[in-house]
Write a structure and sequence with these properties.
The chain is of the alpha+beta class. The chain is built from three helices and five strands. The chain has helices at 31-50, 74-78, 80-96; strands at 2-9, 12-19, 56-60, 65-69, 101-107. A five-stranded mixed β-sheet has the order 3-4-2-1-5, covered by helices on one side. It is globular, with a radius of gyration of 14 Å.
């Protein structure tokens, strides 16, 4: 199962963290994993390559772990639409494949 966690403070999304393989099918045939990967790659391309935001990106092949963190300040505000769209897309995908994808949101403390 792929576990997706969006971190937020107030009404602002701070980051998205994805962990694990969906497990819908064998590697190369897993449509759920492909949909998740494609959505994340598009989101990263929009933030980093199109909007030129200095996002902090972590990619660990072992354990299938990806994290995208928006920069503080104006960059965080400019990145909201992209992360909100990703959250909406993955939440809708979760409704179709709940055994293979879990999406949640955690709220960060104001002092973080």
């Amino acid at each position: 199962m792929t576990k997706v966690t969006f971190s937020s403070r107030g009404d602002m999304l701070l980051s998205v963290d994805l962990l694990g393989h969906a497990g819908y099918a064998e590697e190369g045939e897993d449509i759920v994993c492909a949909a998740i990967s494609s959505a994340v790659m598009l989101t990263h391309a929009l933030l980093f390559d199109v909007q030129k935001l200095p996002v902090d990106t972590l990619i660990e092949d072992e354990g299938a772990h990806i994290r995208i963190t928006l920069p503080q300040g104006a960059g965080m505000t400019r990145g909201q639409d992209a992360l909100n769209a990703l959250r909406l897309h993955l939440t809708e995908l979760e409704q179709t494949y709940p055994e293979f994808l879990s999406v949640m949101e955690v709220h960060a403390d104001a002092e973080d």
